[in-house]
Design a protein that fits this description.
Organism: Pararhizobium antarcticum
Number of domains: 2
Strand content: 5-15%
GO molecular function: DNA-binding transcription factor activity
Domain HTH marR-type: 8-136
CATH class of the largest domain: Mainly Alpha
Protein name: MarR family transcriptional regulator
Oligomer: single chain
Mean pLDDT: 91
GO biological process, one term: response to stress
CATH topology of the largest domain: Arc Repressor Mutant, subunit A
Helix content: over 70%
Radius of gyration: 20 Å
Structural class: mainly alpha
Largest sheet: 3 strands, antiparallel
CATH architecture of the largest domain: Orthogonal Bundle
Shape: flat
Amino acid sequence: MKSTFDVSDKLFELYHRVHRLVNESMTEEGVSLARSKFLFFLSKLGPCRSTDIACALNFAPRTVTEAIDGLERDKLVERKPDPEDRRAKIVSITDVGRVVLEAAEHPRKQLIEEIFSALDDEQLDQMYDIVSRLVVKADEIRKRKEDAELTPAEAAQ
C-alpha cells in the first residue's frame, strides 16, 4: 500500500514533467506556457488593466508589469491609456498575439492527449473524480487558514 506521501510525490513528479514538456512544446511555437497564460486571459476576457491581470492570475503586480513589457516588445499585446483613469493603461492582445497563442495551443493539446492516452475512459473518469476531491479538500484547508488569520473584528464582518 502506497503512503499519502508516495502518492503526493508522484503527483508532483507528474505535474513537473508535464509542465516541462508542455512549456517546451509551446516555446517551440513561439510562446512559453507562462506567457501564454497572459495571452489566454486577455483573449478570453478582453482588454483590462494590469492590476486586474495580477489579481486574476494571483501574480505580483511587478511580475505582471515585467511580463507585459516583454509581450508588448514582441508585439503580442498593446497598452493604451485608460479613458477612466489617465494614470492607468489598458492591456489587450494583438492580432499577432492571437496567432501565436493559437499556434502554441495545438501542440499543448496534442501533448496532453498523448500523455493521458495511457488511461482508458474509466481510469480517466476515476482520476478526474479523485483529483477533484483533492482540490476541494485543498480549498477547504486554504479557507480555514485564511479564516484563522482574520482578526476578531474582520471575522465579525
